[in-house]
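This follows on from our talk about sequence and fold. Go ahead and set the record down below:
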Amino acid sequence: MLRGSAALVATRAMPVVGANETVNLAVIGTGGRGRGHIQYFSDVPDSRIVAVCDVNQEARERAAAMVRNLQESAPKEYGNMRQVFDDPDIDAVSVATPNHWHALTTIWACQAGKDVYVEKPASHNPFEGEQMVAAARKYGRMVQVGSQSRSIGHKREAMAMLREGAIGRIYMARGLCFRRRKSIGHTPEEPVPPGLDWDQFLGPAPLRPYTKNRFAYNWHWFWDTGNGDIGNQGVHEMDICRWGLGEYSKPRSISSTGGKFLWEDDQETPNTQQAHFRFDDSEIVFDVRNLSSPSEGGSPLQGSSYVGNIFFGDAGYMVVDPYGFRIHLGDERHKTHEEKPHEERIWDPRPHMANFLDAVRSRNRYSLNADIQIGAAAAELCHLANISYRCGQQLHTDRDTGMFVGNGIANELLSRRYRPPFVIPQRV
């Protein structure tokens, strides 16, 4: 029934927003990140939030009240995203659902003629990313992934300097995701809270009993719905690794190890993970840690955490983090360049959202700073690392097919068994 509805709306004329028109937005998924979308998009000129959608009545009503306070107008409230796609007044959707819903929401939105801003990671598995790209291209939609580093000034400048040879020929990118977190403990199975549509929340994922840990933010740490911290915070640094290397082919080999240490709780994903990706002439080395860790590259800690990147070339190295970038050259490691951003722009996603809205008006996908193809590729590396970790072995890729060589279990994890009717179609 759901797929039939999507096919039906795909036959309608695709709306096009004029160059000077206000973009009417619906926010789908109104938890903590979704409320952030409401705040940020409300601050971007020539955009208007006309609808909010969430399977949780309490979150939906809270979001609607927030919109009323920010815009002095009441948005429509929807409990099912299909109602959003059927609404002709909506030009674009902003997607802040859990990871396992990103792909299907994006595909349905494209089929319904809506442009899409979708949170990172783009997809829950590699197959989904491919289908999201296919849908965006087939239906001519603007799809931007929330990799806001692509719109942050000092990071764009750092990447440009790498391409100009600031540290010589680059052979390695190191991604650092030292995000301090705490154990989530254990929560029992219990009745679904009133006002929550648990079946819709699970959507493409297997049907599981409700627990508090499988809901709200902690869905990140279950394989059904999340991708661990490498696919949560880490996907930002993974994208920067690819960006700085200029490496857009699939890795020849992937290996990932680690584990869940010290904690005794419900979490399935690791709290410590190392990943290695070997390309033809370069490599990515990635480190995830949720326990106490120092920073690297001479950068200060960001509270109790540190996230950033280090690029290594034959002339020196560059350290990039939210607070700027630094270049060190020669064996003496002389600092030759340091760039610090304006403090208020360190974490600001508004320029990224404004870039999306500009593309909605211009209909030029090449103007997007993080088009779906970029976001899906960064997410894919995170997924490949998780597959290697879950299989407990190094994997080798067939670059012609995108499959793993001689490993049927790993190949199964390139997609998932979808729960009907929430199925990603083979042809979008």
Q: What stands out?
A: Confidence is low (pLDDT under 50) at residues 1-12. The two ends are 16 Å apart (CA to CA). The CA atoms of residues 20 and 139 lie 23 Å apart. The chain has twelve helices and 15 strands.
